Sequence to fold (262 residues):
Amino acid sequence: MKVLIFETEEEAKRNAASRLLRQVQLSPSSVLGLATGGTMEAVYAHLIQMSLDQSVSWSGVATFNLDEYWGVPADSPASYRTYMNAHLFDHIDIVRSATHVPASDGRDPRDAAQLYEDAISAAGGIDLQLLGIGKNGHIGFNEPTSSLSSTTRIKTLTDDTRRANRRYFDRLEDVPKYALTVGIGTILASKECLIVGTGQDKAAAVKAMIEGPVSAVCPASALQMHRNVTVVIDEQAARDLELIDYYQHVHPAGQEADLFDV
Ligand code: PGA
Fold:
């Protein structure tokens, strides 16, 4: 894992955005795996601004989001489709039919899951998978004890996750109990992963992800098995790391050396 620690939350989110932008610049037909959540709102805002400033076209890019609430219609204000349109897709020249979010309608969830896996495969797999990290170590909606080789399926959300996402709904009772999420195995099959976490609320999960044992109790720890992962965090999220001095020695202030980019 490449662990990059930035002094501020703002710098970390800007760095994540510049990595996504670089991927699109270097490979205009990239297949991106995308994430939602509070962290990504600022990442996408930077990405939109950078795309405009540098005239980067998204017309050849395809995207696959990690998850969607089950039973929430795509056009609902609380759906992740609505989130993605509002925070990214409406502001760049991406072809809307090339943007994918798992289906949330009433069809058999096993069929919806298989269709999503098939669509990712048909696109050639994910080139760069963007991830947030939950306070409980989830990635996508793969809650603790998810199979580390899981593929897309329905997951029951934990009460903690439902409370964390309460802000997108009128009442806690309205937060869905289930979501369709790509699996940990699906995430591990991507060519590269970029995981972003900021703030002291994430410190325990970040420590478990980077320095804990590989365990289904912390789904993000499965990323230790992936050969190309960049972790972008701020000092608050990094504060529990035992080897923080080492990470900061290798990448001072989150910077990467030209030759020894390891
Ligand atoms: P957050 O969510 O960015 O809103 O903290 C991250 C996640 O749960 O994956």
